From TrEMBL:
Its EC number is 1.8.1.8. The lineage of its organism: Eukaryota, Metazoa, Chordata, Craniata, Vertebrata. One of its GO terms (cellular component) is nucleus. It comes from Gulo gulo. Functions as a redox-dependent negative regulator of the Wnt signaling pathway, possibly by preventing ubiquitination of DVL3 by the BCR(KLHL12) complex. May also function as a transcriptional regulator act as a regulator of protein phosphatase 2A (PP2A). This is Nucleoredoxin.
Amino acid sequence: QLKLWNKYRISNIPSLIFLDATTGKVVCRNGLLVIRDDPEGLEFPWGPKPFREVIAGPLLRNNGQSLESSSLEGSHVGVYFSAHWCPPCRSLTRVLVESYRKIKEAGQKFEIIFVSADRSEDSFKQYFSEMPWLAVPYTDEARRSRLNRLYGIQGIPTLIVLDPQGEVITRQGRVEVLNDEDCREFPWHPKPVLELSDSNAVQLNEGPCLVLFVDSEDDGESEAAKQLIQPIAEKIIAKYKAKEEEAPLLFFVAGEDDMTDSLRDYTNLPEAAPLLTILDMSARAKYVMDVEEITPAIVEAFVNDFLAEKLKPEPI
């Protein structure tokens, strides 16, 4: 059961995922919405459609102006799932307004589309009045639902960033915006290895994560650790991308700060550094390798043994 939770990155229940029985590939991540929207099965087998097809139709500005979705041609697009009743959404929106302004002022072709999860049209209008970008009309519930289905949205706020062809660059737009307030790394192509921070720590709950703890007081220690892990992370990511699957591990380097101390305390890890771990929060399991020197060979063997289920977990 836990393997399935991790494989499909389930963060809440009930969840219903449709698969192609021949290939095992995901057809639809949000089966509950499919059943609600298509109870007769007229759209079966509910495979993913191109973004341009799903978004087709009028889009609104908060001044009442209407634009056709064809106006997005040639732009990077952020698809923003949010609601006024959600405090984290309102906090992110304030930051995102500034990010949007900076990206536009830098001459980048970028647009955001608000997909509301508000509970009334009045709430939608009040919230949308704070936003300088576009929105799917609140009355177009079918299109809002199709976008939720397309990206398998399980919680808000979620910001999906697309390239001009409508392909996903990152599903972690929320984390990227909070980590890069100057938008220097826009459009936020995913990094193979992340430096653990308050804003991206939420990703530890998405599935198994390799975390290399280092003594960040040593100059260059964190950067050296990232360089050590990166070729292994890239190899794993490429392998699963070729199979059109998500990588089974996320990769982090953790320095020394209050958040890292809290993580060590919560998972009952020793204070050693360097310390190589794989943390699986959903399974409440950890795998620990405490050695004096971490080498690429040690990391690769540790990862391969984990993927081959040769490691014995310790409880968190």
